[in-house]
């Protein structure tokens, strides 16, 4: 199942510089693992937004919840999750 | 009476690790008591949400207020409570 | 997968009486079918709210989208869908 | 159980004058019945607000839902319901 | 004049325990004085809400502002005040 | 007592031209009466806003509610009323 | 440039059935053209939401505005557009 | 004085085609006059938004209110006006 | 030009008592200067609101911005500014 | 591509005075660089608002994101970015 996930990280950005750099390094390492597992499919920055928007895939809400809670930044963030369903236009085009 | 209760816990997640673990252990112990009393009927996580959604049952608002304020995390959370009434469709189906 | 679904129906309630009664009859018939299929698990009224709150289960977002769009009232409503994940407390209690 | 109920009636006020007068007459008649039954305890206007705020009492959410849906204006309104619990200060003062 | 007053106290609940108990004791003492003066007529808890809802009466906005600012918790709270006007239905029923 | 009153009139502006002109004429006539009685003290436009902001004075919420409901545009508008209390700085300056 | 576009279509769904079918057919035809041009890259349904979420690509805001305004449903919808920037994690993974 | 003005026109877009074309022609004619007078300095579309964002200049709020109310679309729109003040950085750069 | 200014001061109220008293004294001194200059015309408290509502006059947005930023409490507050235009009713009554 | 960027800086204003002055000096230096590069075209203050509104230009969202994240105040702010498209009226007037 696909999910659109918008993670707000303003409390992370406001950390002292060194703590921020360490947390970001651990976060990116975990991000690469999730990407390799096909759970984190792609990620974008939104200009001006303290956070990111990403396309995630998981068997179900449990797997997605586990993945999000495995992020080192998890205790300091809030994430808005939108479940995505196939659009019939894409099925017609053959790209579902 | 049934209530849908959405508890937001972002201030709990941001606690120092040890304090968080201790509070969570006490919280789960209390949760099990409330579940045994039939007040906390079931609980879900919402992927990405710092908190939970649950189905609670109480004689009235007083009993629900007492139960929520008995939670060790209570001073740090806010909870949105929606009173639930029987739906006539469920009465017709015989599942009210 | 479980979903909490809050359906707002103020545009349905405002229909002329006869049209409302006919639509409601067809809606309840469809509701019973979805309940029999285990997709609509339970439904509540919320006092004062023009709509309902329900617990739905579906293989994934596609099946849920199809079920919601199969409701006769669908063109006149908006629904807020919250994906639900198992809570570890319920797993510990053995009720996940 | 006590409930604070805020009923928004802007769609009622916008009805053609005659239809409005007839609906209001039926609404007040029903209001008096509910007051006599002790369900509608008191009602206030809020200056500038198209609607009212009231203190309602009911055995539970079912009885409150039935009472609200019995109002002639029900199909055209939305109501925000807040369950009220006893405050310990009032218990101490002896006025709970 | 009657006012519906909703006081949000999440910053009070988050105080260290001892400071909280002391502030609460002073707050209840002041509450009892205001109740004795007929300014604080009644107070409710709202299950899950860090705060309270109350019915206050004062000559005018000045007297209400003074009463609210006299509360020991005042510097840490925000209050939403709704002026209440008599409802003609209550006048008709003779309970205005 | 003084009140800040923000009246939103977008449903009035959208009326057919002739109906709008007639309603506006009656509205201004009533406005002049309320001004003469000292209830409507002053009125401003807000550039771009379909409505107005005004300073109103009334004995209490009842008198203000009556005045607002006496406006010919009343059935089509919503008004946000803020009760105003004397500011100690103005008392010190002698302008309260 | 990539954009996340959330199009709300509740006014379209509420059209009379025949008008809706005709508009939808023209809309899907236009959607296929935009997809063929690489402007509409992919589209999802969101269960319960009257509308869609899609990934669009355009040279700049002008091209995106033209594409959205070319949709037959355009006069009846509102769209929320979020510009997307490359995320450094994806650059590191080599998937930007 | 400069103002940032965001005009929402969804009620205009939903007009019948012919009425829309006529209104738009009159609107653009008026827009060109205001631009020639230096009141409407520049205008942008926002992709997906039913309306526009513009930079307006006027002696004061009165002149701006008159200009906005002179727009043929005025009765069907709402506009959000933000007064703009010189930024000291621009003064330093010599571009205020 | 007149402006309605709503200043929110909850971060000021939460200061330690002594720091609060000192800041308030400097704030009132500055307030009296601005009042004497005719920039701060009048100020009200809003019962329950941590802040104030005031009527300010300034040549333009620059002068208003300077005046607000000259307030000792400025770094800890946010202010909502509404530009006010003359209302034709007041011009007709001769009170514009 | 042009963007309207609204940067909220209340966490910057609340810094200790010295830290604030140092950060502001570095911020203005960076602002002048961005202005010289044509990325930051112009900037306004909004009376009462802890932040600024500006007109920015960048090849695409990536360049804008980099520019915003290069600001010394970036870790403490949030920015709302609106992509701007040419308005046909300006094209007609020859000012696009």
UniProtKB/TrEMBL annotation, chains A, B, C, D, E, F, G, H, I, J:
<dbReference type="InterPro" id="IPR011008">
    <property type="entry name" value="Dimeric_a/b-barrel"/>
</dbReference>
<feature type="domain" description="Muconolactone isomerase">
    <location>
        <begin position="1"/>
        <end position="88"/>
    </location>
</feature>
<dbReference type="InterPro" id="IPR026029">
    <property type="entry name" value="MLI_dom"/>
</dbReference>
<protein>
    <submittedName>
        <fullName>Muconolactone Delta-isomerase family protein</fullName>
    </submittedName>
</protein>
<dbReference type="Pfam" id="PF02426">
    <property type="entry name" value="MIase"/>
</dbReference>
